[in-house]
């Protein structure tokens, strides 16, 4: 009996050590990466359009991102608004850029929603264009409210409760191990809503982003 208990503890210790080593390897890998975008760059650009009608703001932002980063933003014919169900909330996203270590997307909800933020191996920042973003940080007893022009930063490994008011729209930039974020982003779609068409749309959007990055890397800025 004692031997069995000891073996379980040994396995637990091994798993913990493996996770720690993996995390260290991941952050070392991220330290070697060159990134296309910067958190502050996306935030400053989004702030220029805060308070405008969100569709107008998004269209202007896309034009500016293409000017600044040719070959790194999906073309209009591949942009698609896709539902996202995760952590108990429902929203919609439009992916603009995606790689193994970065993404840029437009996100929001027309009706309002809330739930668990998720806990990621990535740093994520959201700059609000319209509406309100309520955030309740883990370990606290009070929530914060963010308004158009403000940026909400979600650090690696952090978890919060989130709530968005009706017609809340934002620009989101993520940097880290992006494939690892898909587990949370797709879990409710797979196990709750079972909306497999949305699952397909989401994976297709990410695949398109990866394809664009590979094409730009191999052939230059005008694939």
TrEMBL record:
<keyword id="KW-0256">Endoplasmic reticulum</keyword>
<dbReference type="InterPro" id="IPR006716">
    <property type="entry name" value="ERG2_sigma1_rcpt-like"/>
</dbReference>
<dbReference type="Pfam" id="PF04622">
    <property type="entry name" value="ERG2_Sigma1R"/>
</dbReference>
<keyword id="KW-0813">Transport</keyword>
<keyword id="KW-0675">Receptor</keyword>
<dbReference type="GO" id="GO:0006869">
    <property type="term" value="P:lipid transport"/>
</dbReference>
<keyword id="KW-0539">Nucleus</keyword>
<dbReference type="GO" id="GO:0005789">
    <property type="term" value="C:endoplasmic reticulum membrane"/>
</dbReference>
<protein>
    <recommendedName>
        <fullName>Sigma non-opioid intracellular receptor 1</fullName>
    </recommendedName>
</protein>
<comment type="similarity">
    <text>Belongs to the ERG2 family.</text>
</comment>
<comment type="function">
    <text>Functions in lipid transport from the endoplasmic reticulum and is involved in a wide array of cellular functions probably through regulation of the biogenesis of lipid microdomains at the plasma membrane. Regulates calcium efflux at the endoplasmic reticulum.</text>
</comment>
<dbReference type="GO" id="GO:0031410">
    <property type="term" value="C:cytoplasmic vesicle"/>
</dbReference>
<keyword id="KW-0812">Transmembrane</keyword>
<dbReference type="GO" id="GO:0005640">
    <property type="term" value="C:nuclear outer membrane"/>
</dbReference>
<keyword id="KW-0472">Membrane</keyword>
<keyword id="KW-0968">Cytoplasmic vesicle</keyword>
<keyword id="KW-0445">Lipid transport</keyword>
<keyword id="KW-1133">Transmembrane helix</keyword>
<dbReference type="GO" id="GO:0005637">
    <property type="term" value="C:nuclear inner membrane"/>
</dbReference>
<comment type="subunit">
    <text>Homotrimer.</text>
</comment>
């Amino acid at each position: 009996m004692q031997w069995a208990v000891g073996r379980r503890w040994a396995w637990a210790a091994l798993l913990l050590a493996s996770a720690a080593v993996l995390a260290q390897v991941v952050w070392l890998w991220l330290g070697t990466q060159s990134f296309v975008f910067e958190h502050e760059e996306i935030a400053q650009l989004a702030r220029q359009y805060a308070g405008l009608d969100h569709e107008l703001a998004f269209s202007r932002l896309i034009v500016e991102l293409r000017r600044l980063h040719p070959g790194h933003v999906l073309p209009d014919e591949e942009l698609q608004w896709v539902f996202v169900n995760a952590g108990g909330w429902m929203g919609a996203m439009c992916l603009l850029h995606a790689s193994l270590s970065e993404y840029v997307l437009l996100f929001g909800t027309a009706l309002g929603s809330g739930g668990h933020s998720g806990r990621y191996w990535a740093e994520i920042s959201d700059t609000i264009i319209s509406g309100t973003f309520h955030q309740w940080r883990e370990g606290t007893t009070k929530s914060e409210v963010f308004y158009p022009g403000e940026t909400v930063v979600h650090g690696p490994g952090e978890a919060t409760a989130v709530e968005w008011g009706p017609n809340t729209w934002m620009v989101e930039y993520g940097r880290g191990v992006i494939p690892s974020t898909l587990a949370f982003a797709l879990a409710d779609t797979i196990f709750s809503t079972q909306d497999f068409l949305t699952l397909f749309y989401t994976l297709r959007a990410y695949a398109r982003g990866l394809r664009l990055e590979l094409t730009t890397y191999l052939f230059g800025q005008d694939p």
